[in-house]
Amino acid sequence: MTIQKLPFLALTCFLGALASAQGSPPRCLNTLAYYNPTLRTGCFNATWFILRVPKTAVQSIVPSDYPLITPPESLFPNGFPADSHPVVVNCGYMNDIRQGPLQIQALMGAGINVPYVDRLRDGKTPFNYPCRTFIGGVNGKDISAVVPALVGSTQGNSILVASFSPNDGPYAALASSPNEFEAQVRQVILPNPISGPGIVPAAFDLDFTSASPAQYAEDTFRALINQPTILTNTKCQRNTYYFNQTFRESVMRTGDATLYGPARMGAVPAELDNRYVEQGGYSASSVMVGFNAEDCASAGANVDPNA
Ligand SMILES: *[C@@H]1O[C@H](CO)[C@@H](O)[C@H](O)[C@H]1NC(C)=O
Ligand SMILES: *[C@@H]1O[C@H](CO)[C@@H](O)[C@H](O)[C@H]1NC(C)=O
Asked: What pTM was estimated for this model as a whole?
């Protein structure tokens, strides 16, 4: 410790005390970085929706080598339409992303995933097939997401750069209706901050309120979210989301998800283009531990049952 650093430390302590004295908003804390110093970790404050999508449409966006597995009835005690398969869309704010000495203060993240995909063709081990994965910068800094997006692509994830609304939190209340929330994701194809707007086709919008009663249990969301992801390089990856923190503030939701396909100049596959109304959702803060890519059989066998 050099003497020159002391005034700086004193100042940050003072500002920290001032912020908490004024009642700073709740923060999504990366409480698992300390225990997983070599892995990617972050705190994800997000909303997940389970969409009921016709099975034929879902199978057409998943590689035909991988059949769909029917989800266990125990997760859907009120039933799930027999001709449909769940598709999970999520959108949120990822805070304090760390891996060893690297840190990204915050990113926006969203995805469209198909759970219960039979990657091992054993008829039972469920995997997530990532149909679309988007990341974007916070506070209007779209371009800041380009570098992490490229890093992800080289590791077997194809990650697309997107702009988010809002981009300083997971969702925003409508001015006209404070108990109704919205989040929008648009893929950035040609960012053009200097001479005008770029091409930013819509991916999806979420529009929701709190649900009572909930359509699905929290455990159902966790079971779907925590299935290992199928990568493009023959490997798989566990991104485990823990919802056991005191600040998780989980709320069950009901609402509409609008997915925009090419006919609407959108960025999602035509087979998913639809307004899915009155679907079941879940908003919560979770702490994510992202493991390195591994053999799919071991990823499937090592899913943490406590997540
Ligand atoms: C998560 O985001 C919502 C919406 O902005 C906010 O109300 C909540 O306090 C946030 N939670 C945390 C832990 O940051
Ligand atoms: C949450 O679960 C993780 C993984 O099992 C564990 O390391 C952590 O201590 C748990 N946190 C709390 C607050 O229970």
From this structure: 0.90
